[in-house]
Amino acid sequence: MLEVLAPLEQWVSRHVSLPTALVTPLVILATALLADGFTRLVIWRAAQWLSRTRSRWDDVALWAIRRPLWVGIWGVALIALTGLVGKRLSLTWVAAHAPTALWLFTLVMLGWFGIRLTREVERRLVFPPPRHPARPLDASMASAISKLVGALILTLVVLAALQALGMSPSGLLAFGGVGGLVVGFAARNVLANFFGGLAIHLDNPFKVGDWIRSPDRDIEGVVEDIGWRLTRIRGFDTRPLYVPNMMFGSMVVVNPSRMHNRRIKERIGLRYADLDKVASVTRRIREYLEQHDDIESDDLCMAYFQHFGESNLDILIHAYTRTTDWATHQAIQEAVLLRCADIATEAGAVVAIPARELHVAGPRAETPVPAREASATRHHDESPSSPPSSRRGTPPRRDSQDRDTDQDSDV
């Protein structure tokens, strides 16, 4: 590059009264300033103007090249000045490696531009212009494509940079073939997570923004990012949860965000005294559910007497709401349950509460005792010194005086 500027340096030194040593640096700086001004006035404003059009791709490359081009202009100027200084001061190593540094810097800028271009393309795939008829692509699929292309660009840049540094590509490939097994065995978990992330992008069991949960693991929340090694999930307690991608290959994942409807499944209990009103209540509830604007009438919609409970008659209410929004579903379910309670009240029934009826027996009535038996009982209780035989019912032995008295009374 300095050889190209040599004729210009000689022409300027003949027509302008400047030292020869300052001509080339000033030319380099002037060229960089002109390129920078052109970038700001033309490319940047053209990108802003094209972003207002209905076209989807006309400004993508301009937005992607803005920063790499600006950094590249001043980077090339700095490397050129460094090489010039090395040549003028006889710094052999600096002058000899300046072209290599310029080539490496160009590769880095090209790689940066390629990665920015893939991100801009990803953004346009997910968010097309407002007046563009194209349908937006799934964010997870666009992210997967962008990451694959970015990894490919990075690999090519690294191989080209190693070749510029004097390393043979065939040697690198040989090392990759021989050492690949060792590296793969040492980093098997990293590779498992990588292929797990690839499987998530290909199978698409969930995407960014979905609410997922795992019945066999304590995992539930909203997916925020699907990386090549980890998936970030934000729990409902706002704490982030980082799950290795290889775990999704061995666990069950439920994606409630993809449900078509939300279910209402509740039970209402009536008293046993309202058994004759159960049929009327269930019929009116079914009519109410079929006429409700927020209830999906094409799906299973029923209200039937289910079974005899311990303290109530259970009525099963089963229906699906048209919306899948959880807050809206809760509001609809609340309105349905309150209306069902009103229907039971209008039918003369009462919503039962858990209760038990306890029957308590009254005091035992005493049997009346005749007066003669009661007198004998008292006499018996007052003579505890009588012989045991008289207490057992055997008549007492009478002496001779008593027999004489009886004989006199008979005479």
From TrEMBL:
The chain crosses the membrane at residues 20-43, 64-85, 91-115, 148-166, 172-191. Residues 362-411 are annotated as: Disordered. Residues 152-187 form the Mechanosensitive ion channel transmembrane helices 2/3 domain. Pfam families: MS_channel_1st, MS_channel_2nd, MS_channel_3rd. This is Mechanosensitive ion channel family protein. SUPFAM superfamilies: Mechanosensitive channel protein MscS (YggB), C-terminal domain, Mechanosensitive channel protein MscS (YggB), transmembrane region, Sm-like ribonucleoproteins. It is a multi-pass membrane protein. Belongs to the MscS (TC 1.A.23) family. Residues 189-258 form the Mechanosensitive ion channel MscS domain. Its main location: membrane. Keywords: Cell membrane, Membrane, Transmembrane, Transmembrane helix. InterPro entries: LSM_dom_sf (IPR010920), MS_channel_1st (IPR049142), MS_channel_C (IPR049278), MscS_beta-dom_sf (IPR023408), MscS_channel_2nd (IPR006685), MscS_channel_C_sf (IPR011066), MscS_channel_TM-2 (IPR011014), YnaI-like (IPR045042). Residues 396-411 have a biased composition (Basic and acidic residues). Residues 268-349 form the Mechanosensitive ion channel MscS C-terminal domain. It is found in: Cell membrane.
